[in-house]
Amino acid sequence: MTGLEHRLQDRVAVVTGASKGIGAAIAKAFADEGASVVVNYATGRHDAEAVVSGIASAGGTAVAVAGDVSKVAEARAITDAAVEHYGHLDILVNNAGVYEFAPVEDVTEQQFHRMFDINVLGLLLTTQAALRHMGAGASIINVGSAASRVTPPETVVYTATKGAVDAVTGVLAKELGPKQIRVNSINPGFVETEGTDAAGVTSSDFGRELIEHTVLGRAGQPEDIASVATFLASDDAAWVTGEQLTAAGGLR
């Protein structure tokens, strides 16, 4: 790393759901840019510790912190950890999320509440907790989905949660703007992660169809989203708030 690359020098970030995939890539990218990072995880302690170890090996600073974002006390503990370890909090990435696809006839109460509790309530609780420590110049980045725009079939609950994230982003940008806290969302298209591989999405007809409808002709990689998050977290985006930045390779 050179000095010119340290766009997040001396800043402290919390990235929820950062043990794998997009969250892990964002945590690594932030550390590469000079930030100290809280790598949050719900169940993947080993994976989160591996992310922290990789950051440390590259000369960065990070700590793994367990917590379920959909629980008030745990959401507070995640953001409090940033202050306890590093003294302040400048950036929050609400990345933690779950998905499950099914036709509307098969949707269950359990699926609905699980996805909304983590994808929407969790975002709100973690933001609420982070705001106790944030001041002027802070940046909140919500990870939504291009699904809210392209509305794929058999994703009704998941897509509804991401539509909610779009709405929350707009409301919070207006609510927190007077405090000089920026709020934006990144809405990824189809990104190949450990999760999509394990769920069989990457090699499925659904996955292939998504790539066919992506102008750039490939699935995204976590690093494609991490670079956008770094921009939104940095002073390069000091005049950007309330935006839904779609990073989807031209998915239509």
Please characterize this protein's 3D structure.
- This protein has 252 residues and is α/β, with parallel strands linked by helices.
- It has a single domain (3-247), classed as NAD(P)-binding Rossmann-like Domain (Rossmann fold).
- Helix content is 45%, strand content 14%.
- It has helices at 21-32, 45-57, 72-86, 109-131, 147-150, 156-176, 194-198, 205-212, 222-233; strands at 12-15, 36-41, 61-66, 91-94, 139-143, 182-188, 244-247.
- A seven-stranded parallel beta sheet has the order 3-2-1-4-5-6-7, sandwiched between helices.
- Strand 4, helix 4 (109-131) and strand 5 form a beta-alpha-beta unit.
- Helix 1 (21-32) runs parallel beside helix 2.
- The relative contact order is 0.15.
What key attributes describe this structure?
single chain; 252 residues; alpha/beta; Rossmann fold; seven-stranded parallel sheet; 9 helices; 7 strands; globular; oxidoreductase; SDR family NAD(P)-dependent oxidoreductase; NAD(P)-bd_dom_sf
As for the number of domains, it is: 1
The helix tally amounts to 9
The computed structural class is alpha/beta
- At the fourth level of CATH, the homologous superfamily is NAD(P)-binding Rossmann-like Domain
CATH architecture: 3-Layer(aba) Sandwich
Instruction: Let me know the average pLDDT.
Output: 96
- CATH third-tier fold name: Rossmann fold
Give the neighbour order of strands across the main sheet.
3-2-1-4-5-6-7
Radius of gyration: 17 Å
Ends distance: 36 Å
**Helix percentage range:** 40-55%
> What is the number of E strands?
7
- Report the CATH C-level class: Alpha Beta
Largest beta sheet, briefly? Answer: 7 strands, parallel
Beta-strand content estimate: 5-15%
* Unreliable spans: none
Order of helices and strands: EHEHEHEHEHHEHHHE
InterPro entries: NAD(P)-bd_dom_sf, Sc_DH/Rdtase_CS, SDR_fam
Pfam family, one: adh_short_C2
Keywords: Oxidoreductase
EC number: 1.1.1.-
